[in-house]
Amino acid sequence: MSAETLARPAARRRGGDLAERLGPLGIAAAVVIALITLAALCAPLLTSHDPAVGSVIERYQSPGAEHLLGTDQSGRDLLARLLYGARTSLLGAAVVVLLAGGGATLLALVAAWFGRHVDAFLGRVLDLLFAFPNLLLAILAVAVFGTGLAQVTIALAIAYVPYSARVLRSVALRERRLAYVQAAELQGLSGAVVSLRHILPNIAPQILTGAAINFGYAMIDLAALSFLGLGVQPPTADWGLMVSQGKDSLLQGHPQQSMYAGVCIVVAVAAFSVIGERLGGRKAGGRA
């Protein structure tokens, strides 16, 4: 049996065309995410204002030619803070998803290939991680290592691993029992080669679906931690931090900062959730 023959099962199960799977709503969500990402990357080109520098005499200015969205309580340009805040919001969530997805995929492949005692041991480890809520684990990490985006990002990545690994493990176990894997073993291919070349491509749709949905969850959790003062620290721009810093301005009749940042979070999370549902056929592969 040739390597080409072994690769056919993965090709047959890749699903239809990506655009057909996403549909009009999914494509619209992808466009929204692309625009947010592009705006974050091109922030220096879209605004000349420093997001961390303000002026007391420019506090709470209304939208105008100089400040398109107005200014906050410190006289900082709100558009600049939204654009640069998108960087930290997206980067933090991306790191969480990459670390959690990579760890979950590795655990799933190891559990599926070795089975029995190894699978049982990894299952107990995942059960132990399930005992710690995401935000609680992040707060514990902050208490030990201090506040900052890196600390909460790593803590959330660890907390997200069992949610993704639980789904990927079941899919990998199903693939492990199929005939094409047994044929690869008979050819003398090692477990690492079979797992990476054949099992991994077949569970890739579940990995992508879980990543898209977890991205939205990660943005919410990171925003919540920044709101509590445990994540991104001032004067760095961040959507969650902007919501927190704008809460006092709400009582003074200036809801712009919290409102703008909150809308950005909702739109981004909704877009990632739509893509995750479309990719997974409304069978989410992320947190459940």
Describe, in plain words, how this protein is organized in 3D.
This protein is mainly α. It has one domain: MetI-like (MetI-like fold), CATH 1.10.3720. 73% of the residues lie in helices and 0% in strands. The protein has 12 helices and no strands. Helix 9 packs antiparallel against helix 12 (256-279). The radius of gyration is 22 Å and the shape is elongated.
**What is the terminal separation in angstroms?**
39 Å
**What fraction of the residues are assigned to beta strands by DSSP?**
under 5%
What's the shape? elongated
What is the mean predicted local confidence, pLDDT? 86
Keywords: Cell membrane, Membrane, Transmembrane, Transmembrane helix, Transport
Family: Belongs to the binding-protein-dependent transport system permease family.
Domain ABC transmembrane type-1: 86-276
Membrane topology: Multi-pass membrane protein
Structural features:
single chain, about 290 residues, mainly alpha, MetI-like fold, 12 helices, elongated
Overview in brief:
The chain is an all-alpha fold and 288 residues long. The chain has helices at residues 3-12, 18-41, 43-46, 78-114, 116-130, 134-145, 149-176, 179-186, 191-227, 239-245, 247-250, 256-279.
